[in-house]
Amino acid sequence: MAVYSESAADSPSGTRVALITGASSGFGMLTALELARKGIMTVATMRKPERAGELLKQAEAMGVAGQIQVLPLDVTDPISIREAVEETLRNYQRLDILVNNAGFAAGGFVEDVPMEAWRQQMETNFFGLIAVTQSVLPTMRRQQKGLIINISSVSGRVAFPGYGPYAASKFAVEGFTETLRHELAPLGIRVVLVEPGSYRTPIWGKGLAAMASPPDSPYRERLARIAQYSRRTAETAPDPVQVAELIGKLADTRSPRLRYTLGSGSRLAIWGRALLPWKWFEAIIDRATR
User: Fold this and answer.
1) Active site (annotated) includes residue 166
2) pTM for the structure as a whole
């Protein structure tokens, strides 16, 4: 198996080891740099390791290139998952932190989104996350310690029109993570949800470009307004390094809580959904996206 690595040396005794999915850009790349900066041996995985150029460039500039190894991992491919985890364990003999970050955003109004797009969304954002988690659990269970961080979204708590597939996948991640936390707490394995709002990452640009919008769609005009609203939000969104810094802090938190929500307007949206009468909240969303 091809391995793209800055360091093939075994981790020093006692050095923690982290594995991150979807580390070629966005939250994943920044998290890899942050964990490496903290002295954690970081296995940065991605579907196409040839896209690791920016990660390795920044790691070199920060002086942490020796703390990062890049491995191929496609979360929708069981063989790829197994090989990446086995390679990690061969190299470092332990695995302390898993950051399930890989994902993408599919959009469009429900009637317009083909079933294949729904399946692809769930395969990557949800089933892929479960498969990677299952692959590391035997090791963490034997160690009797570990930390699993699942990158969810405010869209896993509050659904918006035009993003049904993405919201469905993140709502599923939320429920799965609650169950996982209950199951693993007695084993010394901590499980955490990180729920970012809108940040300046490539996921939204890619998602907007791929929105399902047939020329004859009865929803075309409203979807265009929603896309315009999303672009405006993305342009003024905060720096995604905030998410990476939070994950770095969680790596050192002995008893983390289940959910960490961050980002512009995220808490307000969640509180509004929880506290306001549904018709009021629905009207607010309607006005914001029309």
Assistant:
1) yes
2) 0.90
